TrEMBL record:
CDD domains: PRX_BCP. One of its GO terms (biological process) is cell redox homeostasis. Its EC number is 1.11.1.24. This is thioredoxin-dependent peroxiredoxin. Thiol-specific peroxidase that catalyzes the reduction of hydrogen peroxide and organic hydroperoxides to water and alcohols, respectively. Plays a role in cell protection against oxidative stress by detoxifying peroxides and as sensor of hydrogen peroxide-mediated signaling events. Belongs to the peroxiredoxin family. BCP/PrxQ subfamily. One of its GO terms (molecular function) is thioredoxin peroxidase activity.
């Protein structure tokens, strides 16, 4: 019994250390959004400045073709017209490479760019990089960036299926304030 208790406590400690060691600082609401310049699944260079004057939904996800990530991507796909009607664009980011993104986007008919953040630089700059068992992954975080390039809303550890609806409601709220 004592051995099980010690092992359990050790596991809790290891998980806490892993989470703490991976915690990057998230950009705050009102802060200028971190710049990025990175290729998408089609080999097109995507830059934050490309979205100047528009609302941008920048969502980070762990891995192509995993259940939660597929749910989230397809939910954004299904709600893309509502989001575009609100003058916003959607961009997904993970640490997968461009060919993985291309297959994922093609298979699920995703009508938005997926950034191939292989080195994790964009994920890290948005406080969304983590390492799990030696592998870099993006955390499931979402950022709404306003037309001036500032962070308007931060969602941390989002629910994959619900986040697009939350984003739509928040875009409506934010736009009613402008």
């Amino acid at each position: 019994m004592k051995v099980m208790t010690v092992l359990f406590m050790l596991l809790i400690l290891v998980l806490w250390v892993m989470r703490s060691a991976n915690a990057s600082e998230l950009p705050s609401v009102g802060q200028k959004a971190p710049e990025f310049s990175i290729m998408d699944q089609n080999g097109t260079l995507q830059k934050l400045s490309d979205y100047q004057g528009k609302w941008l939904v920048l969502y980070f996800y762990p891995k192509d073709e995993t259940p939660g990530c597929t749910t989230e991507a397809c939910a954004y796909r299904d709600d893309i017209h509502k989001i575009q009607t609100l003058g916003a664009a959607v961009v997904g980011v993970s640490i997968d490479d461009a060919s993985s993104h291309a297959e994922f986007a093609d298979k699920h008919h995703l009508p938005f760019p997926l950034l191939a953040d292989k080195e994790g630089t964009v994920s890290k700059s948005y406080g969304s990089e983590r390492t799990l068992l030696g592998y870099k992954l993006a955390r499931r975080n979402t950022f709404i960036i306003d037309p001036a390039g500032r962070i308007a809303k931060v969602y941390v550890d989002v629910d994959a299926g619900e986040n697009p609806q939350e984003v739509i409601a928040e875009l409506r709220r934010l736009q009613s304030m402008h």
